Amino acid sequence: MNAGIMRLVVLIPIVYLAAVLQTLLVEAIRIGRVEPDLLAMTALVWLLVAAGPRGFLAAGLIGLVADLLSPGRLGLGLACYLVVGYALVRLRARVGLESVSAQLAAVWGGATLLALGQAVGRWLLGEPGQTLPASLAGAIGVGVYTAALSLPVLMVVSWIRQPRLARRRRFRDL
């Protein structure tokens, strides 16, 4: 089977799980007005560790799922996820983003841009909501919280991707 199709088959249950957790648990782990965006985390981590050069299309589909879960007009999340996903794919191709710290910075920036892009889009479309300065502060909070939740995932993925011998040497040196 084609590798792209296999990646999509793996991505579908991951997105479903993220959507379920987004609807069930986010209220419980909210800090003040800031809550993590688990679908954004899923899309960004997927783009960093598993997606190919057209992975931004999968990020757009995750954005569509985010649109379906949130109140408001359809298409805004899809557009934001496509744009941020495309930028991240291009950045990953040019810079590499192999270290966990670079991936964490990319998740923080991507989640912040996704939250800010959707807030500005809602404001431009005339939907009631927060002011732009409050939206900027909220987007930064969402980015930080989402990146913090993605850290264990990025660490586990990095550990799994390391060659087995390098892992043995690292434990032996401890």
Please characterize this protein's 3D structure.
The protein has helices spanning 3-25, 38-49, 55-69, 76-95, 100-124, 132-161, 164-173. The chain is an all-alpha fold. The longest helix has 30 residues, at 132-161. It is globular. The termini are far apart.
- Which regions contain 5 or more consecutive residues with pLDDT less than 50? none
CA-to-CA gap between the ends? Answer: 41 Å
Structural class: mainly alpha
Q: Could you state the order of secondary-structure elements as H and E?
A: HHHHHHH
Main pleated sheet: none
Q: Give the strand tally.
A: 0
Question: In brief, what are we looking at here?
Answer:
Helices cover 78% and strands 0% of the residues. The chain has helices at 3-25, 38-49, 55-69, 76-95, 100-124, 132-161, 164-173.
Blueprint of the fold:
Blueprint: H1 3-25, H2 38-49, H3 55-69, H4 76-95, H5 100-124, H6 132-161, H7 164-173
Structural features:
mainly alpha; 7 helices; globular; 174 residues
